[in-house]
Structures are given as C-alpha cells and as structure tokens.
Design goal:
Blueprint: H1 3-30, H2 33-58, H3 64-88, H4 97-125
Length: about 140
C-alpha cells in the first residue's frame, strides 16, 4: 500500500465518519439521546454504503475485506482519540451497544458487502481484474 492508494481510502473513510458525527451532533441538539442513537444506527450504514459505492466505483485499491477493515479502523481510531478522549473525556461511549458497537459492525458490513457487489458487477462487465493495482 502506497500513499497514492492510502489517501483516497482515508478521504472516503473520513467522509463517512463526518456524516456520522454530523448525525450525532445534530441529533443531540434537536432530539433525545435515544432518538439520536437510533437515527445514527440507521444512518451509519447508509452513509458508508454511499461512501463505499463512490470508493469502489472509482478506486478499488484493495479487496472489500481490506477496505472494510481500513474504514472501520479509521472510525474506531477517530472515535477513540478524538471523540472519547478529547471531546467527551471519557470512554463511556464504548459501553453503549446502540451508540458504538452496533454502528461499528454495520459500518464494516455495509462497506464489505457494497465492495463485493460493486466488484462482482465490474467483473460481469469486463474480464480485467476487479481490484486495481497501482504502480509505484
């Protein structure tokens, strides 16, 4: 993995994370925490499906499993270091299934399965490798 491959992956992961953060921020300002978390658990996979469609349609610098791991690693890292440690100054968010762990699983799954579908469609349209390689 080189910088040319890593940059679009991180940009796409950050876009998905920003949509999730905006959902939490707007939700907490306008409704109850329970409603906010329900909206977030629905929105997170939708956001990452959209981000994954954009990523796998244009780049495909890795398998769906690899990209799903990188996307969720980015989300967990930012949630831990920025949200939990800096903003909340507490790790309490990681005790909440609805607020943290279920969205993590859904983000991973939505990225992985979207990648599988996009790559399968690409293979059906042409006989070249569905995963792009970048020359150093």
């Amino acid at each position: 993995m080189n910088t040319k491959q890593l940059v679009p992956i991180l940009i796409h992961a950050s876009v998905g994370w920003v949509f999730c953060a905006a959902t939490i921020g707007i939700g907490m300002a306008t409704t109850s925490i329970k409603n906010t978390l329900i909206i977030h658990v629905i929105g997170a996979p939708v956001f990452f499906i959209a981000v994954s469609i954009a990523y796998f349609t244009k780049y495909r610098y890795g398998t769906p499993l690899f990209i799903a791991i990188l996307f969720i690693a980015f989300v967990v890292t930012v949630d831990f270091f920025l949200v939990a440690l800096v903003i909340n100054r507490s790790l309490e968010m990681f005790t909440n299934l609805l607020g943290t762990w279920i969205p993590f699983v859904l983000i991973f799954a939505s990225t992985y399965f979207t990648g599988i579908i996009i790559i399968a469609r690409h293979r059906g349209n042409n006989n070249t490798s569905a995963v792009k390689q970048v020359k150093n």
